[in-house]
Amino acid sequence: MDSIKDKIQRLGKALGRQYVPEKYTQYADLRSEYEALANRDVKQLQREGKKQRIQGIQGRSELNPKWTFANLIEDSNDVIEAVSIAKSFIAAHEDMTWRRSGAHMMIFYGDYGRGKSHTAGAIAHELIEKYEISVLYRQLSTILEMRFFSYDYNAQDNVGQKFREINQELLDVDLLILDEVCVNESVLKKNAQSWLGNVLRQRLANNKNCIMITNHNLAEFENALGRYCFESIKEYDTYKVKFSGPSRRKEIIPTQPEPQQPQTTSGYRPNQVK
Fold this sequence. Notes:
Blueprint: H1 4-14, H2 27-61, H3 77-92, H4 96-101, E1 104-110, H5 116-131, E2 135-139, H6 140-149, H7 159-172, E3 175-179, H8 190-205, E4 209-214, H9 218-225, H10 227-234, E5 237-243
Parallel strand pairs: 1-4, 1-5, 2-3, 3-4
Helix pairs in contact: 3-5, 6-7, 7-8, 8-10
């Protein structure tokens, strides 16, 4: 008795066609193919999600996008040493145990234009890109002004609510960068010392890291912050980095004296008495 296959082959010959049995894909091969496609899609979604998260962190941080290591001029020993310390600090974030072990404070001090803010910003950008560390960059004077105006209960610009929100950010963010600390001030006011000291102590308790940038030397810095605030800093695992190289900012006043215009002895002179 002929099988179905034989009957189909005879029918195919009668019609001038040859029967070719179908090739079926093995289940294991098909499953592997679909898993590879699914993994590719998941990785693509993860990359897009990470990119969006990084962009969100960068947007909230208020960092200068030009503050990167690629743009940093390493033309003096102090900057070279600062970059070495900075990169060691960044690399340490690979170890989750180190992250949870305590709070770390970096103090960048030196004259204007030496690269302090740029180096701090470069650290922040690297931490955001590599580890999605949340960062907040603020000038201390700006926060203190907002804090002062938050006590105006008749204000219509909602400054009180804005300050409460930023104060919570100061406590929650992974890395807080405070720039221009005590700029143009020999001593912070007592209430500002207490407020800043409390912020630093709460961050310390939650193992949150800080970078403080100042133009004072360390002795002046301690005096300007006050004892209560500076004692808060001593509790951190502290790195002190001095910037003493040349200024990287453009000169406005020429280094060479400008030639003076010759004075004329004749001609009209305003308000001259005849």
